[in-house]
Structure formats: C-alpha cells, structure tokens
Amino acid sequence: MLRLFKNLYRSKENLTKDEMYEMLQNNETIVLLDVRSPQEYDEGHLPNSINIPTYEIYSRVQKVIGDKDTIIICYCTVGVRSKKAIKMLKKLGYKNIYHLDRGIE
Length: 105
Prior knowledge:
Oxidized Rhodanese, domain 1, alpha/beta, globular, five-stranded parallel beta sheet, 5 helices, 17% strand, single chain
C-alpha cells in the first residue's frame, strides 16, 4: 500500500484535505507534521500530529523522524510555513513530503 501512495502522490506535493484524509485512512505510518508555533499547536491541531515549528526543523526533525523515507504531510494555518518546511526537509534528504494546501484554517 505504501508503494501505491508514493506513486500516486509522488509528483504532487500539494494535497487537498480529502487527499490527505484518504492517505491517512489507508496508511498508519504517515507523519502529520504541524509546523506552527507551540502556542498555535496548543490552541488546536490535527489528531496524532507532531509539532515542530518551522524555525526548529533543522535542529529537531532528524531526532524525531529519523527515517528519511517516511511519508510526511506538513501543515500550518494557511500553507505558507508548510511550503517553507518541505523545502527545508528536502535539503535534509527527506523524500516523501507533502503539503496540506491552504492549511487547516
């Protein structure tokens, strides 16, 4: 099933909410990465997400998500920070990263 998702979404970094939910229903190993501030995260976040603010990506993500083949869906409020985060993750060698288009607002 993991291979199916890699092929289906590989060329498309931006995911709609429906596409994200479909991926989550069919794969338990996906990491939801909330890149907002801890305060924003505490005010509300997607269930089972991990909070690593964009400004801490370089210093923390490799400790939290060691496998660079992990499927990661980044999100923020409107999509600006999560787009920046996927660029950062690519620089660190992560391969299967996606962005929740338009964020969670």
